[in-house]
Write a structure and sequence with these properties.
Length: 121
């Protein structure tokens, strides 16, 4: 044989390292089982978290509704108190009103569209 001839070993695979690793990777039944269990457990945790968030918001809404109801009741009480203070009997009993004189034969000013000032005698 000639010493200048270089022989190659063609039995060796010339694929990239990544391709070789990919061919070695096998996703067996145990790996599938573990992956599915982890996905199901993550979804379960997410579901429980969402239930907790909704329950907390529901509690906050109920508290705000109770506060709104109490404020409306307080407003109604204040409206009743205002009505009592502005009632005719309270106004008539005020000392300033008792010192006023009663007017006899008053003149009224009547405003009409056609006539500007008309005195009623």
């Amino acid at each position: 044989m000639n010493s200048k001839i270089v022989t190659r070993d063609f039995s060796q695979n010339y694929f990239s390292k990544r391709k070789k690793e990919k061919e070695k990777f096998t996703f067996g039944i145990n790996s599938t089982y573990i992956a599915l269990l982890s996905i199901i457990s993550m979804l379960l945790l997410y579901y429980v978290w969402m239930l907790n968030v909704n329950a907390t918001k529901g509690y906050n809404i109920r508290q705000l509704e109770i506060e709104k109801k109490n404020l409306l009741m307080e407003k109604e009480k204040l409206d009743v108190k205002i009505a009592e203070l502005e009632s005719l009997s309270n106004i008539m009993n005020e000392s300033d009103l008792k010192n006023m004189e009663k007017i006899e034969n008053p003149n009224y000013l009547v405003i009409k569209n056609n006539v500007q000032y008309v005195y009623n005698y």
